[in-house]
Amino acid sequence: MSEFDPKSAAAHGLALCHVCGLVSPVREEQCPRCGGGLHLRRRESVQRTWALTIAALVLYFPANLLPVLRVESFAGAQQNTIMGGVIQFWQEADYPVAIIIFVASVVIPVIKIIFIVALCLASQTGRRPRTMTRLYRVTEFIGRWSMVDVFVVAILVAVVQLGSTISIHPGAGALSFAAVVVLTMFAAMSFDPRLIWDAAAQSEDAAAPSEVVMR
Amino acid sequence: MHPLNAIEQLACPDCDALLAAPRLEEGEKAICPRCVAPLLSHERNALHRTAAFAAAAALLFAVSNCFPFMTLRAGFRESEMLLWQSASGLGAEGYAYLGVAVCFFILIAPMLLIGGLLYLVLPLLRNRRLPGAILLCRWVLAVRRWNMIEVFLLGALVSLLKLGKLASLTLGTSFWSFVGLILCLTAALASIHPRELWGRLEASKP
């Protein structure tokens, strides 16, 4: 019994080129069309994903605890964390903006990290391969939207050059925050959803072979 | 023959199911029977549409970078912000890494995408490919996920509301062309499927 799902291309010794999508025998090592390296599965997929996710989780704390923005005006200096910005919008009754920032900056990174951990676990257990594959696609899609707050900081810093009245400076939180987004994007990229299907095929063999036919 | 119909075997990128490639008529799509990943799509006039939208995007990208994106007025003072200043402003504040990242997400990635698409697709209309096309196609497809112009637009709207209370902020020409740029670039990328692009590149004459 091979480690691959018997219905998969890998079980037939065929590799999908991750660059151009051509299916060729893996022993050719290089894609005959685009020259990309051929691998049956992404290399060290789960280990890399774990490493990047843990790094993102560590940086998630400074990203939320350190100020992303420092505003200096007549009233004195004021430091703003991401959550502080959300609360400020909420108090000023800008509910839609408060919700957008809260979802993009606080909820999505946490959900992404949870999803990636769930995917890594699923690549071992092989449970619910269809749902987990859908989860993988959602994770890939939502990743970039957490960058909103970094762009807000970039725009505010650039547009406010009115030295005498107010000035706005970026804070260390913004850098950590951008790092969280980039790291989780790399984590999602290094994950190989096909591992879930390999694990699912194995557990199906072990339990009841005719129970679920995925078609 | 349409290049999509030259494909014999397909492997699903998400679940690796080995499938015999179906013959697609115009307007049809193929999805994986096991995990519903999109596999192929045969759009009408895919190349022409991609070329047209990419050309429009190139023009709008130039406009977006030449005119002010936002103007801030407070009392007698007025400051204009150009698109690239959102990256250089961070650099000037000592956040060079962040500035480089922002520059990549909103300027370099879209520029590579637009330029790359035009370099690939325009010659393909005559069934030709220019030198380096294969390598460039790899770059163009890889850079897609790092293009964050639509996220930047959401950020611009949020900053508008954030500053609106402190000073009067007006949107410049660049802002509106930027909105058009997002629509055109999204349409250019949506019209052509990577596998079709590769199939056409393979079939073209150097």
What does it look like?
The complex is a heterodimer of chains A (215) and B (206). With 215 residues, chain A is mainly alpha-helical. Chain A has two domains: 1-40, no CATH class; 44-206, Butyryl-CoA Dehydrogenase, subunit A, domain 3, CATH 1.20.140. Helix content of chain A is 56%, strand content 9%. Chain A contains seven helices and five strands; from the N terminus they run E-E-H-E-E-H-H-H-H-E-H-H. Chain A has helices spanning 45-65, 82-91, 95-125, 129-142, 148-159, 172-190, 194-206; strands at 14-16, 23-25, 69-73, 76-80, 167-170. In chain A, strands 4-3-5 form a three-stranded antiparallel beta sheet. A two-stranded antiparallel ribbon of chain A has the order 1-2. In chain A, helix 1 runs antiparallel to helix 6, helix 2 (82-91) packs across helix 3 and helix 3 packs across helix 7. The radius of gyration of chain A is 23 Å and the shape is elongated. The two termini of chain A are 22 Å apart. Mean pLDDT of chain A is 86; it is low at 206-215. Chain B has two domains: 1-42, no CATH class; 46-193, no CATH class. In chain B, 55% of the residues lie in helices and 13% in strands. Chain B contains seven helices and seven strands, in the order ββββαββααααβαα. Chain B has helices spanning 46-66, 85-92, 96-124, 133-143, 149-163, 173-191, 194-203; strands at residues 9-11, 18-20, 29-31, 38-41, 70-74, 77-81, 168-171. In chain B, the strands form three sheets. A three-stranded antiparallel beta sheet of chain B has the order 6-5-7. Chain B has a two-stranded antiparallel sheet with strand order 1-2. In chain B, strands 3-4 form a two-stranded antiparallel sheet. The mean pLDDT of chain B is 89. Chains A and B meet through strand 1, helix 3, helix 4, helix 5 and helix 6 of A and strand 1, strand 5, strand 6, helix 2 and helix 3 of B.
